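anyone seen this seq b4? input:
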Amino acid sequence: MSGSSRSSRSCDVVVVGAGAMGSSAAWWLARRGLDVVVLEQFEAGHVRGSSHGSSRIFRLAYPDRRYVAMAAEALPLWGELSDEAGVALLRTVGGLDHGYEPSVRAVADAMAAEGVAHSWLSAEEAAARWPGLVFTSPVLFQPDAGSTDARSTVAALQRLAAARGAELHFSTPVLDVAETPSGVRVTTAAEEFVAPVAVVAGGAWMPRLVAGLEPIVVTQEQVFHFSPRTAETEWPTFIHHQRPFMYGLPAPSPEGIKVAEHHTGAPVDPDTRDFAIDPAGQARVVDYVERWLPGLDPGVASAATCLYANTATEDFIIERRGNLVIAAGFSGHGFKFTPLVGRLLADLATP
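predicted toks r here
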């Protein structure tokens, strides 16, 4: 289709990408009364990126004070989002960090510096409270940690944005994002969208949408769910500081407990990835469950893959460049900040 035969639509802001961050930005922008158009290359609720699945850890436990502060700022926004959605999207169960003590103590120091509540338990005290886990070193406990419902969060953000007037286009790949003298022009196969500014939150596809980004490495990661041996066992979220880091959290029933390695996947092209589970990686996680999580049946109940799209430092890119607001590099630990990042992006789009 030639450019001259495309229809044109003007709006206040175009949002490219309807994953967690793009959908959150759309919600915030629509709440401010702006005319918002959201363009997503895949169908609603798709599983090709980084925002699908049922559960993500929410935690304030970071060794970097910046992220401790951001998580603390995001916490009340999860309540605000849940209230507007009429759905509890964050379940607070408490979170544990244990393992390599210098690494865990760095987390405690950062939380102390930011005034975040936390406490230490001996391995014996922790085992008595959480008998489904094994501990061999002091355990750092943070009471505000929990799990967020990823799938429901993204769906709620899209529903709420649409209810406030945002126009969402699914199965609509973006062919080009171009700055113009007066703003931006975003081109799809059938239509051009023109606006003063665009929020580009394309996840693993960001390098194809915005030139000159710092390198984004895309990897295919995998997660597993295991069934608790008894329904009475209390399950917190946990980060086990070892090589590689292991993490776990309760997922909505009947999925059980989600357990995975952090950032061990192979680099992939997001358009040609195979979605296949790596048997060696699965074996490592099963071995970990048998050794460290006696409260779980070590038979894998379910498995899935997702994409990580990260900078070299795993820091986020949240910035405005000309008429483009850029959101990238959130995979692996960004979901907990979803309502905060959406607000930050909306602020940048409407200075």
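The chain is about 30% helix and 30% strand. The longest strand covers residues 296-310. kinda curious what u guys think
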